């Protein structure tokens, strides 16, 4: 007769180890606890991919290549971990604080993290240019056909203001510009600058922003975005951004 068994009425009855079921219950509890903790406290897919907002005070240099141009960027100009990886990419997202054009510091946390109306954070996107058009070409080919007033109206800060056709004025397909207004001005380098500003949100929940996209090379464009509250300082912002990017690119 095997060890751990005994006979009753000529039939063998096998004894079960007394610790087996408690052990199984303990293992199941540990597994479920691990799943629970990971689900609620562990990194999600976006965090693993480096897409979660997480600024750093580190100033070690990252070498990122976009369109054959190497950019040497201190890490504290990035808000997403994915942008702190060396190598080639199609898009590099950077951030700077106006008016000093410095990177993230704890004292600037509000500007970098919160989306307040008066935030001094400037969003910068260096990317492969989607179309082989210059800024002037885009104005003539893409933007002007959708303007309601081709001549524009004189505006403050050395700008001319243009209004896009509203939804009721469009006869064909939607233009995609009905929520924006366009400004033309001469940048500090003497070049024409095309600025877009989003129309004010009636609810006041979303701060209005302005942006410009200029050409760094035939294959790389730079887009920067700032709060509309600082439109009066657009020329200084433009010059500062161009100098910052040129410094990162070593040109």
Give an overview of the whole structure:
It is built from five helices and 13 strands. The protein has helices at residues 20-41, 45-48, 109-113, 135-143, 234-249; strands at residues 5-8, 11-14, 61-66, 69-74, 87-88, 91-97, 121-128, 153-154, 159-163, 180-186, 192-198, 209-215, 220-227. The strands form three sheets. The chain has an eight-stranded antiparallel beta sheet with strand order 6-7-13-12-11-10-9-8, sandwiched between helices. The chain has a three-stranded mixed beta sheet with strand order 4-3-5. Strands 1-2 form a two-stranded antiparallel ribbon. Strand 10 (180-186) and strand 11 form a beta hairpin. Mean pLDDT is 83; it is low at 42-50.
Q: What key attributes describe this structure?
A:
eight-stranded antiparallel β-sheet; alpha+beta; 251 residues; 13 strands
Brief summary of the model shown:
This protein has 251 residues and is α+β, with helices and mostly antiparallel strands. It is built from 5 helices and 13 strands.
**Strand count, sense and closure of the main sheet?**
8 strands, antiparallel
Share of helix, binned = 10-25%
Q: What percentage of the residues does DSSP assign to strands (E)?
A: 25-35%
**Rg for CA atoms:** 29 Å
Strand order of the largest sheet: 6-7-13-12-11-10-9-8
Number of discrete helical segments: 5
Helices and strands, in N-to-C order? Answer: EEHHEEEEHEHEEEEEEH
Q: What is the distance, rounded to the nearest whole angstrom, between the alpha carbons of the first and last residues? A: 89 Å
Structural category is alpha+beta
What's the pLDDT, averaged over the residues?
83
Number of DSSP strand runs: 13
Q: Globular, elongated, flat, extended or rod-shaped: what is the shape? A: globular
Unreliably modeled segments: 42-50
């Amino acid at each position: 007769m095997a060890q751990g068994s005994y006979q009753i009425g000529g039939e063998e009855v096998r004894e079960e180890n007394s610790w087996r079921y408690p052990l199984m219950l303990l293992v199941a509890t540990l597994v479920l606890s691990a799943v629970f903790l990971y689900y609620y406290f562990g990194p999600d897919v976006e965090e693993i991919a480096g897409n979660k907002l997480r600024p750093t005070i580190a100033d070690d240099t990252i070498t990122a290549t976009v369109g054959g141009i190497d950019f040497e960027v201190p890490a504290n100009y990035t808000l997403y971990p994915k942008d702190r990886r060396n190598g080639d990419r199609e898009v590099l997202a950077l951030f700077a604080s106006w008016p000093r054009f410095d990177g993230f510091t704890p004292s600037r946390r509000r500007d970098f993290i919160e989306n307040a109306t008066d935030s001094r954070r400037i969003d910068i996107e260096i990317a492969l240019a989607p179309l082989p058009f210059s800024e002037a070409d885009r104005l003539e080919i893409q933007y002007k056909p959708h303007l309601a007033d081709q001549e524009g109206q004189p505006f403050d800060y050395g700008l001319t203001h243009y209004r896009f056709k509203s939804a009721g004025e469009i006869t064909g397909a939607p233009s995609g510009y009905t929520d924006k207004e366009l400004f033309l001005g001469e940048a500090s380098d003497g070049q024409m600058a095309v600025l877009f500003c989003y129309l004010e949100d009636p609810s006041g929940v979303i701060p209005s922003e302005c942006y410009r996209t200029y050409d760094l090379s035939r294959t790389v464009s730079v887009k920067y975005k700032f709060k509309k509250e600082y439109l009066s300082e657009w020329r200084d912002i433009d010059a500062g951004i161009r100098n910052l990017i040129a410094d990162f690119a070593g040109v």
